[in-house]
Design goal:
The structure holds two protein chains of two kinds. Chain A is an alpha/beta fold. Chain A has two domains: 164 residues, Thiamin diphosphate (ThDP)-binding fold, Pyr/PP domains (Rossmann fold, 3-Layer(aba) Sandwich); 127 residues, Rossmann fold (3-Layer(aba) Sandwich). Chain A contains 13 helices and 14 strands. In chain A, the strands form three sheets. Chain A has a seven-stranded mixed sheet with strand order 3-2-4-5-7-6-12, sandwiched between helices. In chain A, strands 9-11-10-13-14 form a five-stranded mixed sheet, with helices on both faces. In chain A, strands 1-8 form a two-stranded antiparallel ribbon. Chain A is globular. The N and C termini of chain A lie far apart (40 Å). Chain B has a single domain, classed as Rossmann fold (3-Layer(aba) Sandwich). Chain B contains nine helices and five strands; from the N terminus they run ααβααβαβααβαβα. Chain B has a five-stranded parallel sheet with strand order 1-2-3-5-4, sandwiched between helices. In chain B, helix 5 links the parallel strand 2 and strand 3. The longest helix of chain B has 22 residues. Chain B is globular and about 55 Å long. Classes of the chains: A alpha/beta, B alpha/beta.
């Protein structure tokens, strides 16, 4: 079995590695143990601010720090960032202040905490905000690398991380990881699977199953949903002619929505979207949830067959 | 700037005239809360704020955060008196492309340090500015103006708790207690009971003044400047629409413009000769 690690641990490690920059500060809302900002807090208590269980205040305290030359990293569960959505909209995105918000425990993969903790709409809502970069990395290494690039961004961001472990894919490939650039993990010409987060490894499994049946799939890790790597999507359309998107998120407004918006305006290809079908989750193990929600490798493979069948 | 009490009163009177003119020209806006806050902001800028009008982004400036951002005409009038913007700029209030957006906005107007418009947000932002100053070992302060209706927003109390917890003594608040909010008197919309006791219970140092008596305003600002071991709040009892008789204590002028006749009366009452 390959190495497994949680993307939230990549975020925690990145904060430590960013600490040499004295302008980097961390804000917490009583979930630092979960989002993994606790390591930074232990080592740099003077640059860490507990905001108590108060997400709205956390976002705007971050905005004030950003307006004063600091680079704030604020985190809580993905679902609780949404409580401060208007603060993110009016206090952070609108004045374009570089507050970096991380929502951990995103998606139904979060598991047994149940539906109240399984954000399936975070990527959609943050994608609607001007100025905000939206990311959902798939593994420990890419989360680490993307987080480390944030201080150079000079605009606000939202990153979803996951609670549970996923395969580590990018050891030794750190230089390929760049905000806004999708990563092609596998080349094929029959269908392109564009995935994010925990469904990237599921998409790789689906591609192996397809290969056993003589179907060659491209797999892309689209860790940045906004700005979307539209050049890459255009090349996938001409190379494969059929697209599948895969995400642990509502099919409305997330990665599938972003790709669909691009396709209808540019170059047509049949698109099948694998995602949560507009319903809430429940308590269950991560693998059980991917099955209940019909978003694991089996369903991605089925979607690939449907997409290929729709090629004209 | 060392201004006498009478000079400060004249500063505020000129601002009142500009407030009414701005709202009259735009035929929209918020005169009531601008007139209630104006003596406070005038004294704050004219005698306390460490700012450089010719260098509005000077890093070590004090920050002023108008959290009740709809009362923007008051702030624009003061910024014009101070020289951050021109009096001609005041004609851009609520006009497409203008520096003077409907609600104060740091992206549009020199001297504005916060993009307001949604109530309950400024105190948290000021807290962040004050924490940044502390990290920088700077003497700069963050002054935040809150409305009284505004403190019905729950997030204000998140910020109040956090500021006291972190002992952010360079965070200084002025509460414009004008007793009226958008729809009606605060007492009718949401009773707030003992406001000073609430802030004390949250760990703040509190002082109450008459927000239209310039000597009391100055002593209130002394209190804010002298309190540095914990966050402090000056609760200023004011009159919505102060200075224009038909606007005073009148919920209708929270967000309404005067007509021609009312404008002429307001100018006369404020001692302004209009050609």
């Amino acid at each position: 079995m390959s190495e497994m690690a949680a993307t939230r641990d990549g975020y925690g490690q990145a904060l430590l590695e960013l600490a040499d920059n004295p302008k980097v500060v961390v804000l917490e809302a009583d979930l630092g143990k979960s989002t993994k900002s606790l390591h930074f807090k232990k080592k740099y208590p003077a640059r860490t601010f507990s905001c108590g269980i108060g997400e709205q205040n956390m976002l705007l305290t971050g905005a004030g720090l950003a307006a004063s030359g600091y680079i704030p990293f604020a985190s809580t569960f993905a679902i609780f960032t949404e409580r401060a959505f208007e603060q993110m909209r009016n206090g952070v995105a609108r004045p374009n202040l570089a507050v970096h918000l991380c929502g951990s425990h995103g998606g139904t993969h979060t598991g047994t905490d149940g539906s109240s903790a399984q954000s399936i709409e975070d990527l959609a809502i943050y994608r609607t905000l001007p100025n905000v970069v939206v990311m959902h990395p798939s593994d420990y290494v890419s989360t680490l690398e993307l987080t480390k690039q944030l201080p150079e961004l000079n605009k606000p961001s939202y990153m979803r991380t996951a609670r549970n472990k996923t395969p580590v894919m990018y050891r030794g490939r750190e230089s390929e990881i760049v905000i806004g650039k999708g990563i092609t993990l596998r080349q094929g010409t029959d269908v392109a699977i564009i995935a994010c987060g925990v469904l990237v490894s599921e998409s790789m499994k689906a591609a192996e199953e397809l290969a056993a049946k003589g179907i060659n799939a491209t797999v892309v890790d689209m860790h940045t949903l906004k700005p979307l790597d539209s050049d890459l999507i255009n090349s996938l359309v001409s190379q494969c002619g059929a697209i599948v998107t895969a995400e642990d998120h509502n099919v409305i407004g997330g990665l599938g929505g972003a790709v669909a918006e691009h396709l209808v305006k540019n170059t047509f290809a049949p698109l099948e979207m694998v995602g949560v079908e507009d319903r809430f989750g429940e308590s269950g193990q991560s693998d059980e949830m991917l099955e209940v929600m019909k978003i694991n490798s089996k369903y991605i493979e089925q979607a690939a067959h449907r997409a290929i069948a729709r090629k004209s | 700037m060392a201004l006498s009490i009478s000079e400060l009163e004249e500063f505020a009177r000129k601002c009142r005239v500009e407030i009414v003119k701005m709202v009259y020209r735009a035929q929209a806006g918020h005169p009531g809360g601008s007139l209630s806050e104006i003596d406070l902001i005038s004294a704050l800028y004219a005698t306390r704020m460490r700012v450089r009008p010719d260098q509005p982004k000077w890093e070590d400036r004090d920050r002023f955060i108008l959290s009740k951002g709809h009362a923007s005409p008051g702030m624009y009038a003061v910024l014009a008196e101070m020289g951050f913007i021109t009096h001609e700029d005041l004609h851009s209030y609520r006009v497409l492309g203008g520096k003077c957006q409907g609600h104060v906005d740091m992206k549009w107007c020199p001297g504005v340090d916060f993009s307001a418009g949604s109530l309950g947000m400024g105190l948290s932002f000021g807290l962040g500015c004050a924490m940044a100053a502390r990290l920088d070992n700077s003497e700069r302060r963050a002054f935040v103006m809150l409305g009284d209706g505004e403190i019905q927003e729950g997030s204000v109390w998140e910020a109040a708790m956090a500021a006291a917890h972190h002992e952010v003594g360079n965070l200084k608040v002025i509460l414009d207690r004008n007793r009226i909010q958008n729809d009606d008197f605060c007492e009718a919309q949401m009773r707030m009971f003992d406001i000073p006791a609430k802030w004390r219970a949250f760990g703040w140092e509190v002082k109450e003044i008459d927000g239209h008596n310039m000597e009391e305003v100055m002593s209130g600002l002394d209190f804010l400047e002298a309190t540095n071991d914990k966050p402090s709040i000056l609760i200023a009892h004011t009159i919505k629409g102060a200075g224009v008789s038909f606007m005073e204590d009148n919920p209708a002028f929270h967000g309404a413009a005067p007509n021609d006749e009312q404008f002429a009366q307001a100018m006369a009452e404020l001692g302004e000769v209009v050609a």
